Amino acid sequence: MARFDGKVAIVTGAASGIGKEIALRFAAEGAIPVIADLNLDAAEATAAEIRAKGGDAFAVAMNVTDEAQVDKGVADVVAKYGRVDILVSNAGIQIVNPLVDFAFSDWKKMLAIHLDGAFLTTRACLKHMYAANYGRVIYMGSVHSKEASKLKAPYVTAKHGLIGLAKVLAKEGAEHNVTANVVCPGFVRTPLVEKQIPEQAAAFGISEADVISKIMLKDTIDTTFTTTDEVADAVLFFAAADTCVMSGQSLVVSHGWFMQ
Ligand code: NAD
Question: Residue 173 and residue 164: Cα distance in Å, rounded?
């Protein structure tokens, strides 16, 4: 029997990058991943990839900042499968700019995706998790949940905020056997990061190679990018928790960048 047999796992932002890998890994270990993403075509493609390997998967169009879409998406999942066991709140974007120039609209957009999205998806899933007396919620944080970098004010603010949300959920959820954790990756070469390399090169007036070696990997212990697989390992570890023993905790997965 596989570790997640029969479990339904909603993964937001699972059409690409880290979320996609998490969905593939859940499917490989028996779960039914729900690919909830803004980009429905890409979500359908991920679901088709999983079904082609013999698993089940369900693609849902969901803008995590839209209360009605989140509530409908989760309701559709429960209507189809009768349950939601796991939520991985992962959808995210990056906008870099010095604080002095940051557009208020960009600030609000960042907080909406990372924080409103986490809140809305959590709230929608919790009703069903409490009724079932079981739930595992994992937020995609970042080393930037614990550390700061220049140009990333709203990202760092939002990622720190997820740790607070997870701690509250750990306390409120415990009596319902619902746990909450944050996984905090270092740099992973997904489309989100590929986009930042030329942007940071331009912002700092350095080469793209220097962005990688002197900024992104500077503080790792082995000059190595974190991989989507390594992040998925940590997510599945928390998702498989038998008890509340680790609930409320966050784990840095970063090749040594920011040790606690
Ligand atoms: P990605 O760009 O590869 O994938 C992000 C996915 O989120 C895309 O499929 C996109 O369509 C979706 N998305 C964006 N806005 C959305 C919205 N409003 N509603 C629903 N879906 C939306 O990015 P990634 O690197 O895989 O990032 C995933 C998460 O991991 C993000 O929360 C990011 O902050 C976090 N993270 C990434 C890194 C990294 O180095 N790549 C490091 C630490 C944390």
Answer: 14
Q: Are 35 and 24 in contact (CB under 8 A)?
A: no
Q: CA dist 154 to 49, 118, 139, Å?
A: 34, 15, 17
Nearest protein CA to atom 18 of ligand 1, as residue: 63
The string of pLDDT tens digits covering residues 203-221 is 889 999 999 999 999 999 9
Report the SS3 class of residue 184.
strand
**CA 54/CA 57 separation, integer angstroms:** 10
For ligand 1, whether the C-beta of 39 sits within 6 Å is yes
Q: What spacing in Å lies between the alpha carbon of 154 and ligand 1's midpoint? A: 15
Distance CA 163, CA 249 (A): 8
Which residue, judged by its Cα, is nearest atom 33 of ligand 1? 92
* CB 188 near ligand 1, within 6 Å: yes
Task: Take residue 255 and report the two structure tokens written for it.
Answer: 């090749």
> Consecutive 10-residue runs of the chain (260 residues): their mean pLDDT?
95 98 98 98 98 97 98 98 98 96 98 99 98 98 97 98 99 98 98 91 94 95 97 98 98 97
**How far is residue 104 from each of residues 99, 107, 154, 159, 217, measured CA to CA in Å?**
10, 5, 10, 18, 30
For the chain, domains (ranges, CATH) are 8-185+228-253 (3.40.50.720)
Alpha-carbon span 112 to 115, nearest angstrom:
6
Q: Is 155 a catalytic residue?
A: yes
